Amino acid sequence: MNQPSAKGTALITGASSGIGATYAQRLAKRGYDLLLVARDLERLQALASKLSEESGVRVETLKADLTNSADLQIVEQRLRSDSAISLLVNNAGVAVNGTLAESSTEKTNALIQLNIVALTQLSAAAAYAFSAAGRGAIINIASVVALLPEMFNAVYSASKAYVLSLTQTLHGEVGKHGVQVQAVLPGVTRTEIWERSGMDASALPPEMIMEVGEMVDAALAGFDQAELVTIPSLPDSADWQALVAARTKLGPNLSRNQAAARYK
């Protein structure tokens, strides 16, 4: 049996395909042991066998539906109790097509459960365990629609804005304990999420769609540079810094003892 990796174990949710599977491949090459979490056990096991053979790392699979509270609790407890886990990649997510008025309550609630509730609980568990250990990292997969809410479905966009906000706040809470946090904001990425949500990615201009390998490689490069927010397709990071500076400038006037003069 392979010896445990000195880098520890990376727990990746939504690891059976797309972004999650690609993170698994890249992190195995970096020498991480893996704990792959998804609903599709057959695909997980096939990926685990391939990565174990190619990279020589330990790869464990865990079948879990993170919209199911019992399954979520199992993954959460593993994060809290397994000291070998040093990296959490919160990748599992779902999109829905159509407007909020047209969407079904069932699909909306499932999206919120996966994109927000599950991600939050797993982030909390990792923050607790990693802070206590004084090391570790949390990567949360958000989306550029967090910055362009007018461009896409209301619930999905709002869920990714939540992920961005949570990650920014979490950085302030756990960074001082030696825990690295990163929010990744991909644009349109060629994965199965489009088919599953009923959207047609082929209707978009080809220059808008990034291949998943390039996206993950860019995200990991941002991780290596200790970026809090990584936007893989953004050419100039100064544009993001300008947005942060503009938001910060609002700070002194966001909470005052009098209303602004224009409201009087």
Question: What would you say this structure looks like, in words?
Answer:
By secondary structure, this protein is of the alpha/beta class. The chain has one domain: Rossmann fold (3-Layer(aba) Sandwich). The protein has eight helices and seven strands; from the N terminus they run βαβαβαβαβαβααβα. It has helices at residues 18-29, 41-55, 69-81, 105-133, 154-174, 193-197, 212-224, 237-250, and strands at residues 9-13, 33-38, 59-63, 85-90, 137-141, 180-184, 229-230. A seven-stranded parallel β-sheet has the order 3-2-1-4-5-6-7, sandwiched between helices. α4 (105-133) links the parallel β4 (85-90) and β5. α1 runs parallel beside α2 (41-55), α1 (18-29) crosses α7 and α4 (105-133) packs parallel to α5 (154-174). The longest helix has 29 residues, at 105-133. It is globular. The model has no long low-confidence stretch (mean pLDDT 93).
Choose one word for the global shape. Answer: globular
CATH class membership: Alpha Beta
Question: CATH H level: which superfamily?
Answer: NAD(P)-binding Rossmann-like Domain
- Radius of gyration equals 19 Å
CA distance, first residue to last residue: 73 Å
